[in-house]
Write a structure and sequence with these properties.
The complex is a heterodimer of chains A (361) and B (198).
Chain A: E1 4-8, H1 9-19, E2 24-27, H2 35-46, E3 50-53, H3 57-69, E4 74-78, H4 80-95, E5 100-106, H5 122-126, E6 137-139, H6 144-161, E7 164-170, H7 171-175, E8 177-181, H8 217-239, E9 248-251, E10 258-261, H9 265-279, E11 284-289, E12 291-293, H10 297-306, E13 309-314, H11 320-328, E14 334-338, H12 347-358
Parallel strand pairs in A: 2-3, 2-4, 4-5, 5-7, 6-7, 10-11, 10-13, 13-14
Antiparallel strand pairs in A: 1-8, 6-12, 9-11
Helix pairs in contact in A: 1-2, 1-6, 3-4, 9-12, 10-11
Chain B: E1 5-13, H1 18-31, E2 35-40, E3 50-58, E4 72-75, H2 78-84, E5 93-97, E6 111-115, H3 117-123, H4 130-141, H5 147-157, H6 163-181
Parallel strand pairs in B: 1-4, 4-5, 5-6
Antiparallel strand pairs in B: 1-3, 2-3
Helix pairs in contact in B: 1-4, 1-5, 3-4, 4-6, 5-6
Classes of the chains: A alpha/beta (361), B alpha/beta (198).
């Protein structure tokens, strides 16, 4: 096994991208993700890659569109306000079915907000974000190791589904250091995509076109149903198919009376809460979605039969709780506890919420 | 201090090497085969402002990397004591830089460890290694990392550094460790007793 290195989450994403064969990065600095472009500005030239600090987020995402169309593995990253700026380009990329990796190290919003960690971009991430009927695959790591592993997995998913993949992180995960075992390097062939503009195995008469323009009404409807079917395939693969174990982590759920639900950094805190609950005789379990779209609804459908109640904890005023409610579908009560503005809820205050629900007197 | 996990908050002025001190402890823990995490406080900081970070060393996998109730606070300046003193776990430890923090009315349910880190660093000829004096001192109390672990981890923390720089850092570790070893520090509720120091 490779040796462990102590790395910041943001840097781990950068190194993992290089190992996954990414040779193009376009971005614009913003706290709390700036270590990522800083790392790649040094690292990409070492592997004959291209790093461009673009003049704006809008420019950066359109450079991603270009490099992705040419068949390259390409990445951009930003934090919340910057990701909002990129949405037009992300919509174009989704429409043109260009694989690429997007990273959002979420900070507090709305508006300029602040630079503290938050989870308030869940809706934007999982509902498309830009205009039109589209989806991005959304991955939610909860450790520096997963920041690296999910970056590599994300590039694979992006290529497989010809779809943008969003790594949804937050300020804590981006800034924190943990030991990482770096993934093995991937030997990526830039000339492996038959649809790409740069594909050189074409017949002379063939032309490839990557576009999201479908002016004809029937053509656009056909295209949208094609995208819809692709999203259905992705949903099946992540709920019952080959990626179902990748999509979710369950901890002590089998006999749990109360299920705590959280993603990202919150799931780490919830694990501590579950341990403390168990010591106090409260049968608590944890569901941690690792993929936020497609949402692992099947897990909640199953647990709604055995658990008495659900408590969703987020660093927002309540966004993912809507997906949990849709999945539980009224069979059991779903409660919410959140902190926002950059405050990270402590295990004590979450434990207090659990107490109120389990022992209501 | 639990033998399984050590939760530490390190705090001081920007420029005192607080984040690096945290990294030294985390990297050392990793080299010693422990699970570790390091989280910086980050904000719209400026020079001369405060800096702090949270480090966990653990024999088991770390669930939450957040430190709300530290076992140990290492405070390099006065505002850090004010900020974190009350958060320390009962029976925990406050290790402070007595060169910059005068003795005051501390809690009596924690272990107090005074280390004149800045003075020791100046004696070594480089006031910037006060942070590493604290690392050496901490290793004497830790159940998870040893002085030898610190020494072994140092070269990896300072790739490309000059030999003299490595040596003064090692000397700082040693001075901090010895200061505790020779029991020159005060601790417990006896902090008000006569203390001559070095």
């Amino acid at each position: 096994m490779a040796e462990k290195v102590l790395m910041k989450g943001n840097e781990a994403i950068g190194e993992a991208a290089v190992l996954a064969g990414c040779r193009y990065y376009f971005g614009y600095p913003i706290t709390p993700q700036s270590e990522l472009p800083a790392y790649l500005s040094k690292r990409l030239p070492e592997v004959d890659g291209v790093f461009v600090q673009a003049e704006s987020e809008v420019a950066a995402i359109n450079m991603v569109y270009g490099a992705g169309s040419a068949g390259a593995r390409v990445m951009t990253s930003s934090s919340s306000p910057g990701i909002s700026l990129k949405q037009e380009g992300i919509s174009y990329i989704a429409g043109a079915e260009i694989p690429c990796m997007l990273v959002n190290v979420v900070r507090g919003g709305p508006g300029l907000g602040n630079i503290a960690p938050a989870q308030s971009d869940y809706w934007q991430a999982t509902r498309g974000g830009g205009h039109g009927d589209y989806r991005t695959l959304v991955l939610a790591p909860n450790s520096v190791q997963e920041m690296a592993d999910m970056t590599v997995a994300g590039f694979e998913f992006a290529d497989r589904f010809r779809n943008p993949v969003l790594l949804l992180s937050d300020g804590v995960l981006g800034q924190m250091m943990e030991p990482v075992t770096l993934p093995d390097p991937v030997d990526y062939d830039v000339n492996s995509k038959k649809w790409a503009l740069g594909y050189n195995g074409k017949e002379k008469s063939e032309r490839n076109l990557c576009s999201s323009i479908f002016l004809d009404v029937d053509e656009l409807e056909e295209h949208n149903w094609h995208l819809y079917q692709k999203y259905q395939v992705m949903t099946d693969l992540f709920s019952t198919g080959e990626y179902k174990d990748f999509a979710v982590e369950e901890h002590l759920c089998d006999d749990a009376e109360i299920i705590l639900v959280g993603y990202g950094i919150i799931s780490r805190i919830l694990k501590t809460v579950v341990e403390k609950c168990r010591k106090r005789g409260i049968k608590a379990g944890l569901v941690r979605p690792k993929v936020l779209w497609p949402y692992p609804a099947q897990v909640f459908e199953r647990l709604a039969k055995t658990a008495n109640q659900f408590l969703v904890v987020e660093m927002s005023c309540g966004q993912m709780v809507e997906d949990v409610k849709l999945s539980v579908n009224g069979k059991k009560p779903v409660y919410f506890f959140g902190r926002t503005g950059g405050t990270i809820p402590s295990d004590f205050e979450i434990l207090n919420e659990v107490d109120k629900l389990v022992r209501p007197d | 201090m639990s033998s399984k996990v050590e939760r530490i908050i390190l705090a001081g002025f920007g420029g005192q090497g607080i984040l690096f001190l945290g990294k030294v402890l985390a990297e050392t823990g990793m080299h010693a085969g422990k699970h570790v995490s390091w989280i910086p406080s980050y904000g719209p900081e400026m020079r001369g402002g405060t800096a702090n970070c949270s480090v966990i060393l653990s024999e088991n996998e770390i669930a939450s990397p957040m430190v709300t109730v530290p076992d140990t606070v290492i405070a390099m300046n006065r505002p850090s004591v004010a900020k974190f003193n009350l958060k320390i776990k009962a029976g925990g430890m406050l290790m402070y830089n007595s060169s910059l923090i005068e003795r005051q009315e501390f809690r009596d349910d924690i272990r107090l460890v005074e280390i004149p880190a800045s003075e020791i660093a100046e004696e070594l000829g480089n006031p910037r290694v006060a942070n590493l004096v604290m690392a050496g001192a901490y290793s004497k109390f830790s159940k998870l990392i040893t002085f030898e672990d610190l020494v072994a981890a140092l070269p990896g923390l300072m790739p490309g550094s000059k030999k003299e720089m490595l040596e003064i850092n090692l000397a700082a570790f040693k001075k901090g460790f010895d200061f505790v070893e020779e029991k020159k520090y005060m601790f417990g509720r006896y902090v008000y007793s006569v203390f001559k120091g070095i």
